[in-house]
Model the fold of this input.
Amino acid sequence: MTADEDARGINLSLHETVDDWSAVRAGAFTFASITVTESMNWSDSGAERQVGRAQEAGLHTGIRHYARPGAPQDQAEHCARTGRRLGAFQPGSLAPALEVHAAGVDDRFIKSWIKAFRHSSGIQRVLVYADNDRWHRLQPDKWADSEVVLWLTNHNGIPGRPGWFHARLGLHQHGNDPVVPGVRGQIGQDALVYPFTLADVLL
Done:
């Protein structure tokens, strides 16, 4: 198994924290995604601090936006402004992600958000994060081009084998057991989906 195939990551939802990012990195985790922004103008100040600490520990760190229905352009611009301020769009960062869980966030919203985010940030590569049920309702062929990577949550305990296939599916949240060093409690744990490599999800 190559280093890329074995790359492991964690992701933090709103209000989740890591006590010791150096311990996370020492535990062979290489990337992290942290939900920082939500809707048109809200950001989690604690999550912003987590981004800086993860960067300092040497993880490939990216930010995530929790989408709410309506105003995808405004939401994209809010995420882009926050990401620039946090230095989250530097080369080697994990690509920024759109979290799609709220009712009413549909394919049209996702397509509009991606277009607006790219225009505002100048970044082409984005991740789209959703659970297994949502992916069975969405139609990513309408908006997932070669710079969009899908990220599926399915806690089946089999890293990199999410139980659903799409040509742009590159990340799998396979569990949230409390076994990550430096973390108290449960936290999302992620793996790459073959043939994607770590480089495919970084800026």
About this structure: The first helix runs from residue 21 to 26. The chain has one domain: 8-201. Strands lie at 8-12, 29-38, 42-43, 60-66, 97-99, 126-131, 148-153, 169-175, 188-192.
